[in-house]
């Protein structure tokens, strides 16, 4: 998993301040308090599977509070699934408290206040899922928050093992596979969450599930082809555009939107990658299927709130490289 922030080379007195500034800018606005500022260290890794982001947080003992005011200022509608790989993580939401041990999962809804605490040396995965994708599988999710999913159940064991396996393969997953892997991961998380409450899981037809995965896989495989359109993707998946979009509507999306969002996400990753500072903004955009720079810049700003050139200037290593 690619490290996107570390306190390793920051002066000790500045480490916590820099860590909180980065977390608030890139993940979520919270208040936090370390057990000892003089010994605080932290690191954040990140990867993307399809459209789902996965983070790996490594930190010293740290208490985190997410208030109603923080919840009101959210700029996205993701929900979080946490799973420690090492150490423990305490979470509390809506009157429910649990201590997650290694390979135990739990859901948190950032629309509502919650508290958490990382144990010393804790390493925890955080899966950031678009709310609509999970609610399409589960219905209302708030009653499922802060309920531990333990690996001693079949559902919990499979979900934990699959998430661990995915996180260990960061950078090795092909684009065509990511859409299918993402769908499997969300299905497993939904299944394991229902086990915690005994809620029955809606079961879409196998045919629709297979078509959904195939359409997403075709999109991921063709992101760099500027001639790709909805008709080509639907045809490759063996269905009509109308039927493919009807199935994708379950996830509140469409072929055209997935194609655009996928290309924009790949461009942003490239613009923020220090290893790709030698590539121009236009080279990156053209490489991911955009043929009109004005259109690309407009869509990028609408998606991320800044121009591609501004995103590039914020890339780690930019100042050092002088590019």
TrEMBL record:
Q: Does the keyword Transcription regulation apply?
A: yes
List the SUPFAM superfamilies hit by this protein, alphabetically.
Answer: Homeodomain-like
Highest taxon of source: Bacteria
Question: Quick check: keyword Amino-acid biosynthesis in the entry?
Answer: no
* Keywords of the record: DNA-binding, Transcription, Transcription regulation
InterPro entries, per this entry? AraC-bd_2, AraC_XylS_family_regulators, Homeodomain-like_sf, HTH_AraC, Tscrpt_reg_AraC-type_HTH
* All residue ranges annotated as the HTH araC/xylS-type domain in the record: 213-314
GO terms, molecular function:
DNA-binding transcription factor activity; sequence-specific DNA binding
Q: Which PANTHER family match?
A: ARAC SUBFAMILY, HTH-TYPE TRANSCRIPTIONAL ACTIVATOR RHAS-RELATED
- What name has this protein been given in UniProt? HTH araC/xylS-type domain-containing protein
The top of its lineage is:
Bacteria, Pseudomonadati, Pseudomonadota, Alphaproteobacteria, Hyphomicrobiales
């Amino acid at each position: 998993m690619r490290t996107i922030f570390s306190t390793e080379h920051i002066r000790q007195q500045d480490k916590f301040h820099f860590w909180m500034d980065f977390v608030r800018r890139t993940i979520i606005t919270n208040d936090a308090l370390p057990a000892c500022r003089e010994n605080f260290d932290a690191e954040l890794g990140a990867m993307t599977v399809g459209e789902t982001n996965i983070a790996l947080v490594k930190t010293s003992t740290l208490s985190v509070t997410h208030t109603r005011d923080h919840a009101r200022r959210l700029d996205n509608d993701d929900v979080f699934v946490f799973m420690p790989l090492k150490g423990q993580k305490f979470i509390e939401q809506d009157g429910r408290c649990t201590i997650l041990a290694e390979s135990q999962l739990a859901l948190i809804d950032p629309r509502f206040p919650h508290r958490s605490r990382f144990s010393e040396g804790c390493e925890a995965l955080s899966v950031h899922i678009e709310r609509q994708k999970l609610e399409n599988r589960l219905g209302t999710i708030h009653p499922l928050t802060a309920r531990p999913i333990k690996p001693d159940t079949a559902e919990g064991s499979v979900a934990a093992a699959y998430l661990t396996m995915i996180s260990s393969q960061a950078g090795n997953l092909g684009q065509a596979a990511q859409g299918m892997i993402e769908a499997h991961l969300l299905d497993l998380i939904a299944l394991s969450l229902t086990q915690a409450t005994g809620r029955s899981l809606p079961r879409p037809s196998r045919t629709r599930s297979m078509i959904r995965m195939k359409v997403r896989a075709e999109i991921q495989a063709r992101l760099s082809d500027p001639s790709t359109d909805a008709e080509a993707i639907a045809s490759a998946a063996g269905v009509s555009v109308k039927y493919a979009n009807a199935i994708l509507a379950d996830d509140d999306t469409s072929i055209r939107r997935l194609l655009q969002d996928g290309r924009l996400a790949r461009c942003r990753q490239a613009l923020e990658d220090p290893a790709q500072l030698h590539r121009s903004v236009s080279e990156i955009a053209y490489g991911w299927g955009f043929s009109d720079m004005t259109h690309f810049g407009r869509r990028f700003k609408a998606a991320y709130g800044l121009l591609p050139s501004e995103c590039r200037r914020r890339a780690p290593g930019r100042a050092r490289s002088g590019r």
